[in-house]
Write a structure and sequence with these properties.
This is Reverse transcriptase zinc-binding domain-containing protein. By secondary structure, the protein is mainly α. 62% of the residues lie in helices and 0% in strands.
């Protein structure tokens, strides 16, 4: 089985690579509602990386919303990866970011 990243062609596809180092993911994060420069987020493990990502939001009133959008971005990057693997379809950066935001908003509406 090929262990390389399907989205950018890198030799290795680890969780940190897929969600933070892959050029597709970097661009999705930056063009998203969050406008995160994901290259600045570091961590030895995925959990460390995640905590580093959300730490700047810890004292913000809209912290839960920002984290929710981030979770949906992760999910949409994962779905783009799987769409490439199983359907050989290359995802659109902007559509991936916009869908994550839309789904986070829809989820929030359901909660309320």
């Amino acid at each position: 089985a090929d262990d390389g990243c399907l989205l950018c062609g890198s030799d290795i596809e680890s969780p940190i690579h897929l969600f933070g180092e892959c050029c597709f993911a970097k661009q999705v994060w930056y063009c998203s509602f969050l406008q995160v420069d994901i290259a600045r987020v570091r961590g030895q493990t995925f959990i460390d990386w995640w905590h580093h990502l959300i730490r700047p939001w810890s004292n913000l009133d809209n912290r839960d919303w920002l984290i929710r959008v981030a979770v949906f971005i992760l999910w949409q990057i994962w779905k783009a990866r799987n769409n490439k693997r199983f359907n050989n379809v290359v995802g659109c950066l902007l559509a991936t970011a916009q869908l994550a935001h839309h789904l986070a908003a829809e989820y929030t509406d359901v909660l309320n």
